[in-house]
Design brief:
Number of strands of chain B: 5
Shape of chain A: elongated
Order of helices and strands of chain B: EEHEEEHHHH
Number of helices of chain A: 7
Structural class of chain A: mainly alpha
Strand order of the largest sheet of chain A: 1-2
Strand content of chain B: 5-15%
Number of domains of chain B: 2
Largest sheet of chain A: 2 strands, antiparallel
Strand content of chain A: under 5%
Chains: A mainly alpha (201), B alpha+beta (150), C alpha+beta (730)
Oligomer: heterotrimer
């Protein structure tokens, strides 16, 4: 994990609010509180939209709370009883890279992206509501990231793959999340700027 | 032109970089031991090693093979002396034999990583299809090969 | 589909057994007197002499044994070659094996037809091979004796040499082979009375090449100047190709030519990948008309309706099942099984070169004679200008009996006048298979007061399995031997085999079939009718046992008073499986018994079911395949067969308006290693005639497993695949 030297957005926000409260008159405080509440509510709404991506089968199938990946929109167990393995990259002898290469393979219909692998078990998302997913994303104990780390993660090839998942073995196009990649990244930036607030539910 | 290293030898092939390695091996290099079974990485008949790891070559574009070490069944040993080959003969594993090149390559990759695999390790790693149903002898031969390697 | 009458073969003693086995007369003798010259690929570097059609001896003493039977994994080429080698006092390692092209000498004597299938290679050829080996030996001995001017008495063979009675002088086989070849073939050669280590497990000759990539399958054939072809036929059966853009296809890299065939397109290119890619991008347009067959409604509508309405052909009537049912405790059930694809690991392929009035074919085929005849029909060449060179087969299972892929290849080879190898994609292979037919059975049984079955009535709705394989020469004048022709119903018995000759003593039996005509091509598939029929019969016998509140093994025993071999395998499997001991906790056992392919097999499955996941923990099999020629090969066939039987419980081909919906191993998924239980195989010591083991193993497995599921859960599975019962293999 790289350490960012700039002050995280959420702390800037907190410090700013605290200063405002100390030096301002009551009227100003309430206006500023309302503005901050708005910002937070907008941020929560942005996360709800982000969650439609994160909870999409293209992400969930490998952010899975199981010893095996899933596949397809019905999230069935990965064929061949493929297993997670000790390093989230398949069993000894049958790594993800046995079949999944650095890009989608038109010839075989096998999807691919650089370093194809499962999210570690602590980063499993099955059964989490949007709010729970949000808190998990920010919880260091569950592999959570600092807000400024989301953009670089979402720029990796594996995440970008979810938005252009290619066609299957018989030419059928895989479904991508309804939110396009650029919009997802804009949402993420805005959500981080607003302090990465989490929806309650 | 794509430069390859196959079975320890340099080779140059004139193929579209998207061409599956399987067909480059079979058609450009004449290495027909690697078999076509499904073309969708579901059966494992085309398994080879890329930098020592098992790869289903029907789903591996030859463009990705650049600067990497490829081993096929023909390069596993010169005289059937690889422990897996010896075990396959000792246990009389193959029936029709069509899947066995891929099977042997998959097993060799497993043993390289896990020299004494348990039955559970074998179940997880060896997912190649054998339509003749030689699985029982395959399992036995893997344990025998593990013994040879010690 | 035509139905024709059998051609009258007045000069041959043709008779039909219950299994429509056709026995041609006087074939054993003819096999001995037809010379083998030119029957296998000649090696000009070595002058060879042929001693019968089966043994070639080089000037250097090298011995080549000719194989009639195709090698598709069942080990037949090892067993039969060893029979000849034994008679020549040679170890198997000292002989080379060559696959015969078509010649009458290599016909299966039972059908008078050259093919490999129906698990009858050993029963048809084993004794003949011993005789041919012995004949060659006697010819060598006679030639050597003549050379020495001594009597044949006391001349012996050993280590590939012939020894003088004085014990000092020897001659190599090669030294006298040319003389020996001129001698008449002994008509009654004396077999060795000391065959070496009978029942010993031989090391198969083909295995070393199968572990280093050097084994040559059809798909591996390479010839100078060879082009590669890919084919695409209609994804919906019965559709025709309406439109394609040949010009843009021809401009694709590597493409040499494009050929339209009746329901598809062949692209010929420099490499297969180029041909395949061009074809995939070709935007072929198919006609709107085609088969309307849909699996989802077929059983309820087509099959069920015929099950009530018929008409039926009566294959067996013994006593009176209907009167025995009157007033008795009656049980009735309906069973169904799906279409299945062969899915040989090596997809269909063939290589051919037709030029200068000659036709050469390199093919992984079980059906040499059919391929030869089809080649003559397609090329118009006389048979002697056509030669079929066989490779190893990457699986057969009955699919490679047919010659559709040979015909296609010849069309391409004739167009380009260069050697062409045509390879089917896996999708093409599954879309244009000749499927094991889906069947619907209604079976009824009547029990007497003691619970014993006194009547069995069995009605089967099944398409024919013999449309494409029934020996064409028996069917009159047919222009295209690849087309479907229905044999007379009384010989079309595969739909009821295993039922009409079941081993139980049941006084009253009725077996009827409605032969369903479908626009889905159907043919034989490993286990033919025995597999599906045993599933029905043995699950139902289990139902009878449950109704009679009897133990399933004891119940079967009580009905096996007259069939010693059936009783032997049942008793052996009960002992070896520990039937009388309690199952391990959470597990239950089921049993099934089969009489098939000239042998007997019983299986006990031990299973557990949890969360709809069916786990087969252990399979115990007891086998009587007659005299055991090679326990190693036989065991591997039975074990592999058991896996085939388990696979058949989870795979199926379904159709939607004529389109096969499973195109590859992602949707048609045979069993994998991790799902395979421990399979123990035990043989009954037997002196009966050797039977086949290639298809015996799978037969009782589905019933044994489903009966175990019943024992574990009370759930009766009457339809396969098991997904219909909400189960999947763990």
């Amino acid at each position: 994990m790289s350490k960012d030297k700039s002050v995280p957005a959420i702390r800037q926000l907190c410090v700013g609010m605290a200063v405002s409260i100390v030096i301002a008159t009551g009227a100003v405080v309430s206006v500023q509180n309302a503005a901050a509440q708005n910002r937070l509510e907008e941020g929560r709404e942005e996360f709800r939209q982000m969650a439609t991506v994160l909870q999409h089968p293209r992400c969930m199938n490998c952010h899975v709370r199981a010893d095996f990946p899933r596949q397809g929109d019905d999230r069935r167990r990965h064929s061949m009883n493929v297993t997670r393995g000790p390093a989230d990259r398949g069993a000894p002898g049958l790594h993800c890279s046995t079949c999944h290469q650095s890009s989608n393979q038109a010839a075989s219909g096998v999807p691919g992206a650089p370093d194809w692998h499962l999210a570690p078990l602590r980063m499993a998302w099955d059964g989490l509501s949007a709010g729970e997913l949000c808190r998990a994303l920010l919880d260091p104990a569950r592999g959570g990231m600092k807000p400024n780390q989301f953009i670089p993660h979402f720029q990796t090839g594996l995440v970008r793959w979810a938005f252009s998942p290619g066609a299957g073995p018989h030419g059928e196009m895989r479904n991508a999340p309804a939110v396009p990649y650029e919009r997802f990244m804009a949402l993420t930036r805005e959500w981080v700027e607003r302090g990465a607030p989490c929806p309650d539910q | 032109m794509i430069k390859l290293n196959v079975n320890g030898r340099a080779a140059t092939v004139d193929a579209d970089p998207d061409t599956p390695l399987l067909w480059v091996l079979r058609e450009h290099l004449g290495l027909t031991g690697t078999k076509y079974g499904c073309g969708i990485a579901a059966c494992g008949a085309c398994t080879v090693h890329v930098d020592g790891g098992a790869v289903r070559s029907c789903s591996f574009p030859v463009g990705e093979a650049k600067d990497r070490k490829i081993t096929t069944i023909e390069g596993l040993s010169h005289n059937r002396s690889h422990p897996v080959q010896k075990a396959w003969i000792a246990e009389q594993v193959p029936q029709c034999g069509y899947c066995q090149s891929g099977m042997i390559m998959a097993v060799a990759a497993l043993l390289a990583e896990k020299p004494r695999p348990t039955d559970a390790d074998i179940d997880a790693a060896i997912t190649n299809i054998c339509r003749c149903g030689t699985y029982q002898r395959i399992r036995k031969a893997i344990h025998v090969a593990a013994g040879f390697s010690q | 589909m035509n139905t024709v009458k059998l051609r009258d073969r007045s000069n041959a003693a043709v008779r039909f057994t219950r299994r429509a086995v056709l026995r041609g007369g006087a074939l054993v003798l003819s096999a001995a007197i037809i010379p083998g010259e030119g029957h296998a690929a000649p090696n000009p570097a070595k002058e060879t002499a042929s001693l019968t059609a089966w043994v070639r001896i080089g000037r250097d003493g090298s011995v080549t044994v000719i194989a009639s039977q195709s090698e598709m994994g069942q080990g037949i080429s090892t067993t039969l070659a060893a029979a000849i080698a034994d008679e020549l006092y040679l170890p198997l390692e000292k002989v080379a094996i060559a696959f015969a092209p078509f010649a009458p000498a290599y016909r299966d004597p039972v059908y008078n037809w050259m093919f490999t299938g129906n698990s009858q290679g050993t029963s048809s050829f084993y004794q003949l091979m011993r005789q041919m080996g012995a004949a060659a030996r006697e010819m060598l001995v006679s030639a050597a004796a003549a050379r020495w001017g001594v009597s044949v008495d006391g001349v012996t063979l050993g280590n590939g040499r012939i020894a003088h009675p004085d014990g000092r002088r020897t001659l190599s086989f090669g030294a006298v082979a040319a003389d020996a070849a001129k001698l008449p073939v002994p008509t009654a050669p004396k077999l060795r009375d000391d065959p070496p280590s009978p029942g010993g497990a031989l090391r198969r000759w083909d295995i070393p090449a199968k572990v280093d990539g050097s084994a040559e399958f059809g798909i591996d054939v390479r010839l100078p100047g060879m082009l590669l072809a890919a084919v695409r036929r209609a994804p919906r059966l019965g559709s025709k190709l309406e439109k394609h853009d040949a010009d843009s296809l021809k401009s694709r890299p590597g493409v040499v030519t494009v050929l339209e065939i009746s329901d598809g397109l062949i692209v010929v290119a420099r490499t297969y990948w180029q041909a395949k890619r061009a074809l995939e991008d070709a935007n072929l347009v198919w006609s709107a008309a085609g088969s309307e067959f849909s699996s989802a409604t077929a059983f309820d509508q087509v099959y069920a309706q015929r099950l009530s309405s018929g008409p039926f052909f009566t294959h067996l009537e013994k006593g009176s099942a209907s009167s025995a049912m009157d007033g008795a405790t009656k049980l009735e059930a309906t069973y169904q099984l799906p279409f299945e694809a062969h899915a040989t690991m090596e997809p269909m392929n063939c290589t051919a070169h037709v030029a200068d009035g000659r036709c050469e074919i390199w093919a992984p085929t079980q059906g040499v004679e059919l391929a030869q005849a089809v080649a003559a029909q397609v090329t118009g060449l006389p048979p002697e200008r056509i030669i079929i060179r066989r490779t190893l087969l990457g699986g057969g299972f009955g699919r490679r009996l047919l010659a559709d892929f040979v015909k296609q290849t010849l069309v391409a080879a004739m167009a380009v006048k260069q050697p062409v190898k045509l390879i089917w994609s896996r999708e093409e292979d599954m879309t244009h298979d000749f499927y094991r037919p889906a069947v619907l059975h209604r079976i009824a049984g009547a029990l007497d007061s003691s619970g014993s079955a006194v009547a069995l009535s069995h009605r089967v709705v099944s398409p024919s399995q013999m449309l494409y394989i029934f020996p064409r020469s028996m069917l009159g004048d047919i222009k295209d031997w690849t087309e479907a022709v229905a044999p007379p119903e009384k010989f079309d018995t595969m739909a009821v085999e295993g039922i009409i000759e079941q081993p139980y003593d049941i006084a009253n039996q009725l077996v009827e079939q409605h032969r369903l005509e479908l626009d889905i091509p159907t043919s034989v598939w490993r286990t033919t009718g025995h597999g599906p029929n045993n599933f029905v019969l043995e699950c139902f016998v289990d139902e009878l046992a449950a109704a009679a509140k009897r133990d399933p093994v004891a119940y079967r025993r009580s009905m096996l008073r007259s069939d010693r071999r059936a009783l032997n395998v049942l008793d052996l499997v009960a002992v070896k499986s520990g039937w009388d001991r309690r199952s391990p906790s959470g597990a239950a056992r089921g049993v099934a018994l089969a009489k098939a392919f000239g042998g007997y097999v019983a299986a006990v499955a031990e299973v557990s079911v949890r969360n709809s996941r069916l786990s087969v923990r252990r399979l115990t099999m007891a086998v009587d395949c007659g005299r055991l020629l090679d326990p190693g090969i036989a065991a591997s066939n039975i074990q592999g067969g058991a896996v085939w039987g388990l696979s058949a419980m989870q795979t199926e081909i379904t159709f939607e308006r004529g389109r096969p919906m499973q195109l590859n191993f992602d949707a048609f998924e045979p069993l994998r290693l991790g799902q395979t239980p421990a399979i123990e195989v035990h043989f009954v010591a037997s002196d009966d005639k050797p039977g086949g083991t290639g298809e015996l193993g799978p037969v009782p497995v589905p019933a044994a497993v489903c009966n175990a599921v019943y024992a574990a859960t009370g759930q009766r599975i009457r339809a396969l695949p098991i997904s219909r019962a909400g189960l999947s293999f763990a």
